[in-house]
Structure formats: C-alpha cells, structure tokens
Amino acid sequence: MIANYIARSVVDEAEDGDSAYKKCKEKDYDLIILDLNMPDTDSVGLVSNIMALKPRSTILIYSMNAEEVYAKKYFQLGVKGYLSKTSTEDEIKKALDTVLKGKRYVSPALSQVFAEDAISKKANNPFDNLSPREFEIVLLLIRGESIASICRTMNLHSSTVGTHKARIFEKLNCSNIIDINAMAKLHNVIPG
Q1: What is this structure's pTM?
Q2: I want to staple 44 with a disulfide (CB 3.0 to 4.6 A). Which of 22, 31, 136, 171 is the partner?
Q3: For the chain, what are the domain ranges?
Q4: CATH architecture classification, 2-120
Q5: Are 85 and 63 in contact (CB under 8 A)?
C-alpha cells in the first residue's frame, strides 16, 4: 500500500541495515521508512545511527511487530511514526502526511495505550523498563540467537552483550531464557 501512495516519489530500497545506513549517509531523504525485521539488522542501532548522523531525519517504522510493544522504544529514539503493516490505506496516508509535515504520527490504538499508561502512571509491561539496546538484545535472545551471533549483528563485544543480558535478567526478574520467552508471550512481545 505504501508503494501506491509514494509512486510519484523517487524511492531507494535497502536489503539490510548496513545498506540502509550507507544510503542514508549518501543522500538526504524527505522520509525514511524502515521495517524492523530486515535481515542481519540491529534495528535499534540502525535508527540510533541514522539519528546521530542526521538528527533531522524523518523516520517512519512500518512493521508487522506489535506497535503497543515496540513503538515506545522507537519513539524514544526519535522516529516520527510507527505504523502496522495491517493498517488501512487511509491510516497509511494519514501517517505519511503527518510525518512529512514534521509531526509525530500515533495511531488511535497506540494513543489509547499511551493514555492508559499515563493515567495509571506505571509500566504494565516489564519490557518497557528495558533500554532500547536491551530490548533489541532480548528480542534476539528470544529468537534463539547465540551471543556470538548477537555480537556480530549488533557489532558489540561479547562482554558488552553479557552485561546487557545480565541487566535484562535482573530487570525482568527472570533466571533463564525460558522464563523470558514465557513473559514475552504473556505481554505479547512475541506471538503466543
């Protein structure tokens, strides 16, 4: 659907995070649309690097990942909007118009989640207590990635990943990956 809406625009595509970052270094884009599930990509790192390189970048996340779980982390990093791939064509148009005008796009469903969180003044989801980097690592751990694989994907030293892993276990009050998987299913971080 997005392709139909931006048919009159010049569009570049990237197959992974490295090529996306390279394209962002080479060109100035009015809008960068990112999927969180690009192969071999540390999505949090990619967004952080793009924002560090070009702080005025307009990034819209377009993903199958549940916005009520993932969007907060990416808004904290500076993205302008988060859109589900199940969104209607009208919602996609509204999101594109909104972010291209320099404003944040928050879907009605996500607005409700934010309002409920603000009213209760507590994080109902313990994964909200993780930093963006910790959240990305926990997602890779849940997918069954090894520490060595996480180090390669995120370009981090094994001791750094180990430190993040220890903090994740502490913050989630879990003692192993099985517990984290169960908690992730309970809080819809991964499908049940």
Answers
A1: 0.67
A2: 136
A3: 2-120, 126-186
A4: 3-Layer(aba) Sandwich (3.40)
A5: yes
pLDDT of residue 121: 57
- Taking alpha carbons only, the member of 166, 172, 175 closest to residue 187 is 172
Question: What would the pLDDT profile of 91-146 be if each residue is shown by its tens digit?
Answer: 999 999 999 999 999 988 888 877 776 666 555 678 888 998 899 899 999 989 99
Residues 6+ apart with CB under 8 A from 111: none
Measured distance CA(182)–CA(142) in Å, rounded:
10
**What's the confidence (pLDDT) of residue 125?**
79
Q: Please count the residues of the chain.
A: 192
The DSSP letter of residue 32 is E
CA dihedral (159, 163, 165, 168) in degrees, to 10, reads -170
149-189 pLDDT tens trace: 999 988 899 999 999 999 999 998 888 888 888 888 877 77
Token duo for residue 167: 């903090």
Specify the CATH number for 126-186; select among 3.30.40.10, 1.10.10.10, 3.40.190.10, 1.10.1040.10: 1.10.10.10
